[in-house]
Design goal:
Arc Repressor Mutant, subunit A; Rossmann fold; 5 domains; binds adenosine-5'-diphosphate; binds zinc ion
Length: 761
């Protein structure tokens, strides 16, 4: 048979005399982590053929100098070699593939979806510790062997054996049983304890925090009706092995997290793994604690892990020894071999979009993965993004509503205070209504949260004489005044300067601080309520590790009565004694040059308002605003986020903004303003030219700009930007790809492409 086909090939496809020239071999396609964009082919020498495979890294010669470089092997094929000579793979770096075929496919899709370089996507998907393959320290686990002891065990031995029903480290066995390490060693020698694998040091540490006292074991007996329906909506596709995206649209306190927890329970029962994404680990300690409290093997991937620890986690997950992965954005790449469920909590948060290349959105990545694996994706929020909302309205995703709080507490009434009204402003940044609300809560023994989304003391420093505003010397941003020490801090680049006492422009000694930041608000509150215990939570006070948790613990223990803070306080917190939430300046971010400004404002105000009145004492919300009639404010004040969605969607549709179209934003930076403007202009011209020759749906493409970016200068670089918009993301990206192909960027210019940006400054 072999001989037969061989001969047929010889006669039918090629004359015999060509055969001599025909070279066959194995070719590896590799992607460089940086430098070269396109994939390159290399010949695989026979000696390495068994080891070169997709997902491993290989050593290859690059360029004229044949410098040795590490590259990702993304494909291997055997067959005819091309006419031109190929360079040869020099070695193989990894002992096993770092990336499965599915992850390789994902990186290809991501590169297309966000116009990113494949190499940088590959690097983003793998944690640094894995790439540098630092070996983590491993710890042995022990389990009771079940063997009948020849002599009656001592009480200490019995205690250890009882603690060793599941694989446990010697350290934990000693702690739980109260026995010494010597007892454990003896049991191992007697064969009553046996080794049951190893676990790396950091996972062990993560699991151990289970025992932290403050965690409540609070699995409720029954679910509310909407919770049960939501859980069923998740378990139904899960049992059928089918992908589906389920959106839990529920007010804070409606029991969404409990639904995630029980869906994860079922996932583990099926012997599968779950990935749970949260906006930021340090801002959601309560959520993480609840997962740790409920499940044994939880890997919490937070930003304080060392590369070696990260690597350890990665290996434990890849080996299937970790059931639940909780982490921020990049945890979506956790290499779970038996993935059964993906959950994204607070799915509307911006932090799910990466701000540096590759500028991917974890929600889209999660959908791709969940679809490929045939597992449910759960998105939860009290204020779903408009993208998510419109998927539900279109019937592609399933929305489950959890309209009421568990336990029946009512959403608190909201009072809006019109700041344009003179009487409202008579007491600095705290109106009489707000002050009265605070007093009411304190008198009733409740707690207060005040949101002001601007840190620092004053938002700017201005001369009363000539109007001059102190600005950062390297950014086009007003300096924020921070006390003590009259420091002017730039919130763009972090530069700290001393604010002079006289105006640098007219020399008049009339510099005054204007606008209130959280620092000044804290001072003001202390002045108004001298007896109250006040604390502030913003990035200035939360610099040191653990400070965030300490403040929240103190608030929970009611050592703090009034908590002043930025949006940090709006996230994932559940404090039953909060009776008043005050939003000091609701429209602070409403008028930014960003089409998402209204959405973001409505989300923030709705979220923070939901923190009030979660306990039996009831609660109130006071919202101070200069635009009380804005739909974002009106909706938030009525706890009717959906009303805002209904008013906002037609606006987006008319302007072809997401979710009705796609946007590609280009930002050009240069120390030379002319150069930035020229290059932005050049790119815009090329986009227009491509858009002018319509192919299919690219006809409706709009090019906006170039124009100076809203922040026109940052860290001494001038910034210009342009936008391309179109109804169809795929053809829009194709257009951008064509327009930017082969561009030779001038030396003094840098530029980036952001597909479907979440931030337009
Ligand atoms: P969300 O995630 O929507 O803010 P949670 O899941 O945190 O809501 O639930 C709010 C509070 O209600 C939590 O303290 C939680 O333990 C409790 N809870 C949730 N579901 C139930 C239930 N079915 N029965 C009793 N308590 C519940
Ligand atoms: Zn600056």
């Amino acid at each position: 048979m072999d001989k037969h086909t061989g001969q047929r090939e010889l006669f039918e496809s090629r004359p015999a005399w060509v055969e001599d020239d025909l070279r066959r071999g194995t070719i590896a396609t590799v992607v460089m982590p940086d430098g070269v964009d396109r994939p390159l082919d290399y010949l695989v020498p026979e000696g390495l053929a068994a080891e070169v495979e997709p997902g491993r890294r290989v050593l290859v010669p690059l360029g004229r100098g044949n410098r040795e470089r590490l590259a990702y092997c993304v494909a291997v094929r055997s067959g005819e070699l091309p006419q031109h000579p190929l360079k040869t793979v020099l070695g193989v770096e990894d002992q096993a593939p770092l990336l499965s075929q599915r992850m390789l496919d994902l990186t290809q899709w991501m590169a297309d979806r966000w116009l990113a370089r494949r190499g940088e996507v590959l690097e983003a998907v793998l944690p640094a510790g894995v790439r540098s393959s630092r070996r983590p320290r491993a710890i042995s686990l022990y389990v009771a062997s079940g063997q009948t002891p020849s002599r009656r065990p001592t009480p200490a031995q019995t205690a250890v054996l009882e603690a060793a029903t599941a694989p446990t480290s010697a350290e934990d066995l000693a702690r739980r049983s109260g026995a010494s390490r010597a007892v454990i060693s003896r049991l191992v020698r007697l064969g009553l304890l046996v080794e049951a694998g190893t676990v790396s040091a950091s996972v062990q540490r993560a699991v151990r925090s289970n025992d932290r006292e403050k965690i409540r074991h609070d699995r409720p007996e029954t679910l509310s009706e909407p919770q049960a329906a939501a859980l069923e909506a998740i378990l139904d596709p899960m049992r059928a092995g089918r992908h589906e995206t389920i959106v839990l649209f529920g007010v804070t306190g409606s029991g969404k997290t409990e639904v995630y927890l029980q869906a994860v329970e079922e996932t583990l029962r099926q012997g599968r793994q779950a990935i749970v994404l949260v906006p930021e680990i340090s801002l959601t300690p309560q959520t993480c604690d609840r997962f740790r409290a409920r499940f044994g093997s939880v890997a919490v991937l937070h930003s304080h892990l060392t590369p070696a620890e990260r690597h350890a986690q990665w290996r434990e997950i890849a080996a299937g020894r970790v059931g639940v992965v909780v982490g921020a954005r990049s945890a979506i790449f956790a290499p779970a071999p038996r993935l059964g469920l993906v959950v994204i909590d607070e799915e509307h948060e911006n932090s799910f979009k990466q701000a540096t290349a590759p500028r991917y959105h974890a929600r889209d990545v999660a959908e791709w993965i969940a679809r490929a694996e045939g597992v449910p994706l759960v998105l939860g929020s009290a204020t779903p993004s408009l993208e998510t909302f419109s998927e539900c309205l279109a019937g592609r995703w399933k929305m489950c509503r959890l309209a009421d709080r568990v336990g029946g507490s009512q959403l608190p009434p909201v009072v809006t205070v019109d700041l344009r009204d003179r009487a409202a402003r008579s007491r600095g940044s705290v109106s009489p209504r707000l002050a009265a609300g605070i007093k009411w809560a304190l008198d009733a023994g409740g707690q207060v949260m005040l949101l002001l989304n601007r840190r620092g003391f004053a938002t700017h420093v201005q001369c009363r004489g000539c109007g001059h505003t102190a600005r950062c010397p390297q950014c086009d941003l007003a300096l924020t005044l921070h006390q003590p020490g009259s420091r002017g801090i730039c919130h763009g680049c972090g530069l700290v300067t001393r604010v002079p006492s006289a105006c640098p422009a007219c020399a008049a000694p009339q510099l005054v601080s204007r606008g209130t930041g959280t620092q000044r608000l804290e001072d003001e509150i202390r002045g108004l309520f001298p007896g109250a215990r006040v604390a502030r939570m913003d990035t200035d006070t939360m610099r040191t590790r653990g400070s965030h948790e300490r403040t929240l613990d103190a608030f929970r223990a009611r050592e703090i009565e009034i908590l002043v803070g930025t949006q940090m306080i709006a996230k994932g917190l559940d404090f039953p004694s909060v009776m008043l939430v005050g939003v000091v300046h609701a429209d602070a971010a409403l008028h930014l040059a960003d089409f998402r400004a209204a959405e973001r404002t409505c989300q923030l105000v709705t979220q923070v308002a939901g923190r009030s009145g979660r306990g039996s004492l009831g609660g109130r919300v006071v919202v101070q605003t200069s635009t009380p009639d804005h739909p974002a404010i009106v909706a938030a004040a009525k706890h009717d986020y959906e009303a805002f969605v209904r008013s906002e969607l037609p606006i987006r549709e008319a302007l072809l903004y997401p979710p009705f179209g796609s946007i590609v934003r280009v930002v050009v930076r240069s120390v030379d303003e002319r150069a930035a403007a020229d290059w932005a202009g050049h790119i815009a011209d090329r986009m227009r030219k491509e858009a002018g020759q319509p192919e299919g749906s690219a006809a409706a493409v709009r090019v906006l700009g170039p124009a100076p970016a809203p922040i026109t200068r940052l860290r001494d670089r001038f910034r210009w930007h342009l936008q391309v918009q179109g109804p169809d993301g795929g053809s829009l990206r194709e257009l951008v790809r064509r327009a930017t192909a082969g561009l030779q960027t001038p030396d003094n210019v840098a530029w980036i492409i952001d597909v479907d940006p979440v931030e337009m400054l």
